[in-house]
């Protein structure tokens, strides 16, 4: 991070948790003086619309600005959305790694890469990325969708969960599905991925086919789970732009092809 000067120019990303500051729906743009960020701490984290994108260090208790959820930006081009994810995740990382975990000295931010480094013992720590899987399960012409406890009465989506230590991604897929809905799957294959800065996850998407078992819910996580035919009415689904919605679309297309 460096102290922002009046003549620094570009787009400006200010965050509070997993939210960001917008003006008329867009990131502030212009020189630092025009955008009222002179004297704050920041750094360039990439290029946004062919201009530098400056990340401003998170401002504690910022009551002067109105922030909006990163989720509300899912409509954006994938490259833009992912860059906003980077900023949100970096501020979370910098805020939670102010001190060296080895000796307790206050860290500083090196200029050659995204990291923090201890000036006393030299230990360098890199942004923590927590991998999680998200998977759509198909049974012939049907897709499995679940209503999670946090969405009771609302959205049905695919199953997901964090990778545990000593576990590969495919093992996580099998374990999470068995834990959450009690069924076994086969033909697990990679679909795609999406950074998900809530606050620091990477969602790794898979498709899978039903193998055996009846639905038995993990009540602490899942409120309801059902098989839905591709050509019947579907419940409320995740918003466009999410990898969950992309997985559902791909699975529905496979259901339609099933003979």
From TrEMBL:
Residue ranges constituting the Nudix hydrolase domain according to the UniProt record: 127-251
Reactions catalysed, as given in the entry: NADH + H2O = reduced beta-nicotinamide D-ribonucleotide + AMP + 2 H(+); a 5'-end NAD(+)-phospho-ribonucleoside in mRNA + H2O = a 5'-end phospho-adenosine-phospho-ribonucleoside in mRNA + beta-nicotinamide D-ribonucleotide + 2 H(+); NAD(+) + H2O = beta-nicotinamide D-ribonucleotide + AMP + 2 H(+)
Enzyme class: hydrolase
A cellular-component GO term for this protein: cytosol
Residue positions binding a divalent metal cation 1: 160, 180, 221
Keywords assigned: Hydrolase, Magnesium, Manganese, Metal-binding, NAD, Zinc
One Gene Ontology term of the molecular function aspect: NAD+ diphosphatase activity
Assembly: Homodimer.
HAMAP family, A to Z: Nudix_NudC
Protein name: NAD-capped RNA hydrolase NudC
Organism expressing this protein natively: Gallibacterium salpingitidis
């Amino acid at each position: 991070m460096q102290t922002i000067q009046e003549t620094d120019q570009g787009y400006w990303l200010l965050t509070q948790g997993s939210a960001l500051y917008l003006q008329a729906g867009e990131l502030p743009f212009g020189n630092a003086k025009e955008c009222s960020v002179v004297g704050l701490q920041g750094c360039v984290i990439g290029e946004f619309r062919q201009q530098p994108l400056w990340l401003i260090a998170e401002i504690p208790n910022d009551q002067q600005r109105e922030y909006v959820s990163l989720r509300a930006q899912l409509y954006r081009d994938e490259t833009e959305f992912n860059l906003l994810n980077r900023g949100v995740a970096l501020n979370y990382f910098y805020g939670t790694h102010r001190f060296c975990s080895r000796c307790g000295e206050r860290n500083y931010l090196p200029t050659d890469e995204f990291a923090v480094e201890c000036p006393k013992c030299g230990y360098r720590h890199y942004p923590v990325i927590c991998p999680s899987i998200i998977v759509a399960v198909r049974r012939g012409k049907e897709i499995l969708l679940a209503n999670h406890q946090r969405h009771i009465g609302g959205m049905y989506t695919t199953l997901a969960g964090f990778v545990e230590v000593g576990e590969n991604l495919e093992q996580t897929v099998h374990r999470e599905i068995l834990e959450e809905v009690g069924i076994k799957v086969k033909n697990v294959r990679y679909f795609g991925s999406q950074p998900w800065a809530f606050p620091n996850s990477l969602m790794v998407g898979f498709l899978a086919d039903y193998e055996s078992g009846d639905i038995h819910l993990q009540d602490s996580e899942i409120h309801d789970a059902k098989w839905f035919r591709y050509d019947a009415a579907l419940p409320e689904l995740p918003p466009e732009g999410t990898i969950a919605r992309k997985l559902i679309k791909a699975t529905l297309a496979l259901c339609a092809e099933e003979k």
